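Lecture notes, part 5. Sequence design as translation. It can be helpful to think of inverse folding as translation between two languages: the language of shapes and the language of residues. The source text, in C-alpha cells, appears below.
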C-alpha cells in the first residue's frame, strides 16, 4: 500500500472541514420602517429572520416599531471561495433541484401606541384619550372610564369675582309708580367681591360645560317720604342665589394649554329678603326703634312688614381664556354679564295669621363681573 495515501486522505478531510465552516458575515444594512411594515414582512423581503433582526437591533418587543424608525438588517453572508478541488481534476456538474419560494402571510399592521418621539419638557398636554387601549408606565392596557371621560377633561376650582350693578337707580316718585318697590329707588351691591365653587367638563375639544354657584345680594335704599323722614333708609337686603349652568365653545392652542372660550349660561335663582328689624316691626325709623329698647318681637301695629322675592331664571353671557401652566393646574380669566330681575311684593303678616299684599314690583339685579378661577385638572 502506498504510504502517501493516508496523508492525502487527511488533507482532503481538512479541506472538507474548511468548506463546511459558515461564511463571513457582511455589514448590517440600514432600513427605514414604512407605513404598514411589520418585522415579519421586512424579514421576508430581505431574506432574513425576525429573530436575527431583533438581535441586531436589541429590540425586546417585535410589535414596537413605528413609521420612520431606522433599523439594521443583518447582511447576507459573504461567500468564501471554495477550496481548490484535488480530485477529480474536472468537476462534475450536479443537477440543482429548484426550491419552491417560501411565502409569508403578512398580518395586519399592529396599531402603534408609542408615545411622541419629541415630547417637550416639562409638560406636554395630551388630548383626551379616545382609543380603547392606552399606554402608561406599565405598558399597554385597556382604557378605563377615567381615561376616556375624566382625565384632562374635568376641572374643579374656586372662582374669585368682582361685580357691579348695571341698573342701580330709579327716579324718585312720590306716587311710587317708577320705583323698584314702594319707596325703594336705589340698590347697592353687598357682595362686590365673592368666592364660589365651580366645575367644568370638556365634552370634546371644542365644547365645554360649566357649573358655578352665583349669588347676588343688594341693599335697598328709599327716597324721602316727607321732609327729613325716611331719607336713604333701608328696608333690608334682597337676595337671589343659585347655580349657573354654562355652555361654551372653545378652541385649543399650544397643544391645548391655551383655550379661549365664549358661551351662554342659564341659572335658577332662589329669592329671599332679609328685613331690618325696625322696619319689620313697623317703626318709622331706626331711632324710634332704639328709643323703644330695640325689641326683636312685638309690634305697635300688631302686624309685620314683609317683602317677598320670587324665585326666577337668570341668563348670562361670558367670554374668557383658560391657561394650563402645569399638568394639573388651570387658570381662567373671564367676563360675565348676567340679567336677573326677580319679581317682588310688599305686604303685611298679621300676628294672628294671614297676609295682606300691598304693592308689587321687581328688583333689577343685573350685574357685570370679572371672574378669576383657579382649578385642579384631573
Amino acid at each position: 500500500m502506498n504510504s502517501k495515501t493516508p496523508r492525502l486522505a487527511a488533507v482532503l478531510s481538512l479541506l472538507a472541514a474548511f468548506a463546511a465552516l459558515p461564511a463571513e458575515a457582511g455589514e448590517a444594512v440600514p432600513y427605514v420602517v414604512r407605513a404598514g411594515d411589520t418585522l415579519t414582512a421586512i424579514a421576508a423581503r430581505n431574506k432574513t429572520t425576525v429573530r436575527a433582526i431583533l438581535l441586531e437591533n436589541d429590540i425586546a418587543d417585535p410589535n414596537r416599531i413605528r413609521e420612520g424608525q431606522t433599523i439594521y438588517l443583518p447582511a447576507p453572508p459573504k461567500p468564501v471561495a471554495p477550496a481548490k478541488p484535488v480530485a477529480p481534476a474536472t468537476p462534475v456538474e450536479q443537477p440543482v433541484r429548484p426550491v419552491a419560494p417560501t411565502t409569508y402571510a403578512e398580518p395586519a399592521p399592529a396599531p402603534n401606541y408609542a408615545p411622541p418621539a419629541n415630547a417637550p419638557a416639562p409638560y406636554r398636554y395630551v388630548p383626551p384619550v379616545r382609543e380603547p387601549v392606552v399606554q402608561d408606565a406599565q405598558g399597554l392596557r385597556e382604557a378605563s372610564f377615567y381615561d376616556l371621560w375624566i382625565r384632562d377633561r374635568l376641572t374643579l376650582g374656586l372662582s374669585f369675582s368682582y361685580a357691579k350693578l348695571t341698573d342701580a337707580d330709579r327716579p324718585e316718585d312720590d306716587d311710587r309708580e317708577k320705583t323698584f318697590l314702594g319707596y325703594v329707588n336705589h340698590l347697592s351691591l353687598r357682595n362686590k367681591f365673592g368666592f364660589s365653587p365651580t366645575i367644568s367638563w370638556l365634552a370634546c375639544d371644542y365644547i365645554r360645560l360649566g357649573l358655578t354657584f352665583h349669588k347676588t345680594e343688594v341693599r335697598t335704599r328709599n327716597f324721602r317720604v316727607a321732609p327729613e323722614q325716611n331719607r336713604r333708609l333701608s328696608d333690608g337686603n334682597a337676595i337671589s342665589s343659585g347655580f349657573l349652568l354654562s355652555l361654551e365653545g372653545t378652541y385649543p392652542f399650544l397643544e391645548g394649554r391655551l383655550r379661549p372660550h365664549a358661551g351662554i349660561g342659564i341659572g335658577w335663582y332662589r329669592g329671599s329678603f332679609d328685613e331690618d328689624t325696625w322696619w319689620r316691626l313697623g317703626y318709622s325709623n331706626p331711632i324710634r326703634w332704639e328709643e323703644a329698647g330695640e325689641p326683636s318681637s312685638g309690634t305697635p301695629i300688631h302686624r309685620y312688614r314683609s317683602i317677598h322675592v320670587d324665585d326666577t331664571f337668570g341668563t348670562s353671557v361670558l367670554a374668557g381664556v383658560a391657561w394650563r401652566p402645569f399638568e394639573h393646574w388651570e387658570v381662567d380669566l373671564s367676563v360675565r354679564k348676567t340679567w336677573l330681575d326677580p319679581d317682588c311684593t310688599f305686604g303685611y303678616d298679621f300676628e294672628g295669621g294671614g297676609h295682606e299684599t300691598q304693592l308689587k314690583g321687581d328688583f333689577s339685579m343685573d350685574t357685570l363681573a370679572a371672574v378669576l378661577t383657579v382649578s385642579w385638572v384631573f
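The translated text above is only one of many valid answers, since several sequences can fold into similar shapes. Residues 122-149 form one domain.
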